[in-house]
Known about the structure:
Layout: H1 2-24, H2 28-39, E1 43-45, E2 48-50, E3 53-60, E4 63-69, H3 76-81, H4 83-91, H5 99-102, H6 108-116, E5 123-128, E6 132-137, E7 158-163, E8 169-173, E9 180-183, H7 190-204, E10 209-215, E11 231-235, H8 238-260, E12 275-281, H9 290-306, E13 308-314, H10 324-329, E14 333-336, H11 341-348, E15 362-367, E16 369-374, H12 380-387, E17 413-414, E18 417-418
Parallel strand pairs: 9-13, 9-14, 10-11, 10-12, 12-13
Antiparallel strand pairs: 1-2, 3-4, 4-6, 5-6, 7-8, 14-15, 15-16, 17-18
Amino acid sequence: MLFEFVTSAFMASLLGVGYVKKHVGLNDAAKIQRIFANAGWVGKDNGLPKPIRIRRKRRIPGGTEYVYQLPLAFDRKKVEEKIHVLEDGLNVTSRSIDWKALRDVRTVKQLKTVINAKKPRKEVELAFDGMLKIRIYNEPMPAKIDWDPSLLKPGTWSVPIGHTRNGKVMYHDFDDLYSLIVAGTPGYGKSFFLKMLISVLVLNNPKNVSFTLIDLKEGAAFKRFEKLKQVKYVGYNPEDAKTALESVKEDMTAMYRNFIDEGFEDVKEAKIPHRHFVIIDEGADIAQDPACIELLTDIARRGRAAGFYPIYSTQYPTSRTIPIDVKRNIPTRLTFVLDSNNASLAVLDQGGAEDLPMIKGRAIYKHVKCTTVQTPYMSNAEIETRIKPNIVLKARETDANEITPRGKSSLVLKENGLS
């Protein structure tokens, strides 16, 4: 009887191994090699094709990293621009094994259930440091991450950009990276991000921040901030935008005189705590106005030293809607999903944004290198609650921290809007 039991167990194990071999297919390393070969992603050696060669692999949080040595004359841009080909190939008829569940398998029927269970879609991330690093994540990033007060950094100019694949929060510190271009197809998070950004800046530094808000979608996104005591100038059409930018330039020039005359290089050296943010939603509507672009370029060029920080956003990124002089002076970018490779090139100088999943809040943040993030979602109700203590319903006096251009008074807020 013991012999029969051992024999049955042995035969079952053989059957199980055979079933696994038949139905699981290639592992990820083998798939990568095959995808590269089929896509023609090879280098050359003495005129002959030479494939990539794996050097090592290691476990990373949530997945596996494969490190490859690239042959000479290998164009890694092909892979970066076509990362969706690699990602799709790794997910085609993919049947990976849940080894933890496999430990509890007692019958072939249970084995079939484990192997045939639907697996989450794998996602791919690339890095290059002399070796090509392909990181394969077993599960996609969370599709939504709610804003939380723990994301605040009071007293700083750091704004949460989003959660990375390893769960860490990436911040944009405007005192180091003083400007930002934001782009994205309507409905996928651009305006929500800008509203969150304004709210966080107010909550982090209520006494030392001021804003120029230019919302060229008839005020749809920024109207709720109009009566913030920190808001100095508002523009909802191109003509008002030009007037606001002219006022900002005068304020910036006055600020320069404040610290240059004292022998300081910038506001940080002069220990001036105030920062002014010029936030433009839908810059395409002023992009063809030479006067507006000249003003914005000057603010972007000189603003860092004076503590005047521009944030320029558009739904339709092209070489026309993001003028070259603006782009040259604002090197840091954040883009949500876009509809074409050309649009991605206009923002990031490389493709990728067109391949982002159609998930609200999913974006690529570029500061030297690109990082995929899920931006935190701050609802309108949360925004209203958080900024309410900073709303004024009557005319206000100029704050002592504000810089008023010489010979010109600041715009003020009244109960029914701007004077």
